[in-house]
Amino acid sequence: MASLQSIKANCRKVMCIGRNYADHIKELNSARPKQPFFFLKPPSAILLPGAGPVLRPKGVIMHYEVELALIMGKKVQDLHPDDTKGAMDAIAGYLLAIDMTARNVQDEAKKKGLPWSIAKGFDTFLPISQLIDKSRIADPQNAHLWLSVNGEMKQSDNTELMLFRIPRQLSDISRVMALEEGDIVLTGTPKGVGSVKTGDVMKAGLKVDGKDIEEANIEVP
Amino acid sequence: MASLQSIKANCRKVMCIGRNYADHIKELNSARPKQPFFFLKPPSAILLPGAGPVLRPKGVIMHYEVELALIMGKKVQDLHPDDTKGAMDAIAGYLLAIDMTARNVQDEAKKKGLPWSIAKGFDTFLPISQLIDKSRIADPQNAHLWLSVNGEMKQSDNTELMLFRIPRQLSDISRVMALEEGDIVLTGTPKGVGSVKTGDVMKAGLKVDGKDIEEANIEVP
Ligand SMILES: [Mg+2]
Ligand SMILES: [Mg+2]
Ligand SMILES: [Mg+2]
Fold first, then answer.
1. Which of B45, B57, B117 sits opposite A38 (nearest CB)?
2. Which of A104, A128, A136, B14 lies at a C-alpha separation of 20 to 30 Å from B212?
């Protein structure tokens, strides 16, 4: 598998699913979607491990959202929603990622019917972990995500709680736009999102079968 | 300057400004923005010249929006809005582009406060022209855009009508996210947008000082 630098360099889009865990929908008072919906983050937002802090733009209320991320290993178009094998074969590996969100900017955009690109797209708004080899996560719908702020656990849930599972996500995206090798897909965040300010330390990680996956560890100062 | 194939291959984001011509805002009954707002299109949407028709997804009302596009020649961060020279120096060249839009999908997204990425991001939703050498457009705020459908002129206006000029656009984007070499910026569409169906022929072009810029010609069957 490629190096992290090349992951960033080769990424041509980051597609993220919104509202994919029921309890997270409740905590934001959002409507439960009848079908998956997606938004783009720009590759320029990727923050590599050790590359410094997330930068909070002035006046921005900045929320964390820990998510399991897929790295695509080949081009996918018009994938059938029941094609679990096709979906799994298209995944080259995994990352843990934090979908940083300018929540007040997003709330304003929602109210006005405006795009989310700014709220989701600031530089440093996508901290990622080291590469996680595909073999390390036997079943991506059975992995435990967690995120803490200053040592206090904020998010801790299993990917089995996703409303729309990974094959359905890849199917829906790929019927709109081709997923290309190197593209990254963020699969949604569980409940517990909240704000961080400059100086807060975020840690995040992933457990499979109760064991920590070391490469997944994120620490953002 | 690079080949068109490499333009597509090297493009890591396409940023588009919304509502940047007053008469276009009126025709869509949109609110006039106090500051520029932007959305991302995925690079996978780029349709190279001669690469076939725009594909209309089932149930989609598909609108054309002709726009002057900038190809970035270097990384730009935190550009000052008055730095006209900095903005112009960062532009490597131009394209003419059609920002195809699934208008009914976008209208639904606006109503529900959802992102625009799907409405703007279908495969083939970004037809572009040949490369236009930077020297061919002495002043990008004085170029005449046009677009016809089946021989009938639909859009025909000068870039001098932009509400937010190019340095302001690049400044606002670059204060949110780094513009990188190869990124493409769409500068907004003038009035006259409308729908096209399968089989309609779109032609578009650019005039500078009353003369056609041949490389800018787009013809989408
Ligand atoms: Mg998210
Ligand atoms: Mg993108
Ligand atoms: Mg447009």
1. B117
2. B14
Compute the distance between CA of residue A118 and CA of residue A129 in angstroms, rounded to an integer: 23
- CATH for the B4-220 domain, from 3.90.850.10, 3.50.50.60, 3.40.50.970, 3.40.80.10: 3.90.850.10
What residues are paired with A98 via a beta bridge?
A66
CB A171 within 8 A of CB A83: yes
Whether the CB of A6 is below 8 Å from some CB of chain B: the reply is no
pLDDT, averaged across chain B: 96
Q: B22 in contact with A at a CB cutoff of 8 Å? A: no
Chain A within 8 Å of B38 (Cβ-Cβ)?
Answer: yes
Q: How far apart are CA B110 and CA A112, in angstroms?
A: 7
Contact B122 A178 (CB under 8 A): no
Query: What's residue B117's pLDDT?
Result: 97
Per-residue pLDDT band for A150 (boundaries 50, 70, 90) equals very high
* pLDDT above 70 for A105: yes
Every domain of chain A and the residues it spans: 4-48+59-220
Place of tokens 């991302």: B40
For the stretch B28-65, pLDDT in tens is 888 888 989 999 999 999 999 999 999 999 999 999 99
| CB-based contact, A176 to chain B, within 8 Å | yes
Distance from the alpha carbon of residue A42 to the mean position of ligand 2, in angstroms:
5
CATH 3.90.850.10 fits A4-48+59-220, yes or no: yes
Q: Percent helix, strand and coil across chain B, each rounded to 5?
A: 25, 35, 40
User: Hey, are the CB atoms on A42 and B13 less than 8 Å from each other?
Assistant: yes
